[in-house]
Amino acid sequence: MRRASGMAVIVSLLLLAGLGAAPRAATSKETTTASFTVLKTLMEVSGVSGREEKVRESILSLLPAWARSKARVDRRGNLMLQAGQGGKRILFIAHMDEIGFEITGIERDGTARVRSLGGFFSTLYEAHPVVVHTQAGPLGAIVRPRRDYLSPASAGRPFSDADVVLDFGTVDRDETLAFGVIAGDWLTVAKRFRRLAGEMASGRSVDDRAGCTALVNAVLSLDPERIGNRVTFAWSVEEETGLKGAEAIASESVFDVVFAVDTFVSSDSPLETKAFALGVLGKGPVLRAMDNSNLAPRLGLSRIQTLAESRHLPLQIGLTHGGNDGSVFTQYGAVDLPLSWPTLYSHSAVEVIQQADLNNLGQLVALLAEAW
To answer: Is the pTM above the cut of 0.85?
Structure first.
């Protein structure tokens, strides 16, 4: 996670109903556009841990016909797709959920209290708008600022779940309830995919909708008849609250190799030291050689590098904070080789990604599916 003081919060919400078929190849100018088109679609669908249904539906709508016919949803809610036969048992996994809050209760004055779903700096929400997802539809609210929240003294104080107060503009509990707000409703920032200068884009839930996009793009480019391994693509649930979707898969299936596709929290920023977690945006996907949950074996990393070189795919290698879905599979004998792209301002409302990195990540996933 990266501190994000001084950044503006995205304040509009756009939900897309679907997307037409994307090009199969991942090398043309058209596909460069398509990668961000897929990412935009998935980012602008909200889905915190345990509420990933709409994200799953969007991913299904993007898959080619052969994949949609084979895809299934397991008991936990993970979207699973199997292809190929013989060879190694390989899993590619990216998580569908994002961070946010869940309402725990509504106060007499009409405000609501919350608990966090995933780890982040709650101060990023203070004095900013959010979207509450109720049964009646999305409803705007703000996270009430503390009286002295802009003072230097306030900046140094903790801002925990207990400090997060949702203000709907109502005067009492009954008025808030009349809008359909109840305990158990969940909220996110108001999300929008925003193009930046050059090849950059920004928004909330690049982590891990970019990983989901890489898997979608790989499936779009693959011929299932040419896959020589037993390959499973999984879009998992509840990663941000404890890798729960991945644990369900690990307890029921056996894999030789797991490629967890998730963000690389990078220090490629003017205010960061370059001594740790340096993954340069625009220099290609990143192999997460080490993070807080896993140490990838050197032979596996070398093999990925060799395959990437054979297709002239740029590749970086580094170590960063955080964990990955693949780590829960190692206790069952699988090798965890995490794949990433470099991201700035992780878990904020303005995560930044470079589109060529995402294109190359999708190509890398397809290559490993075919040639591992």
So the answer is: yes
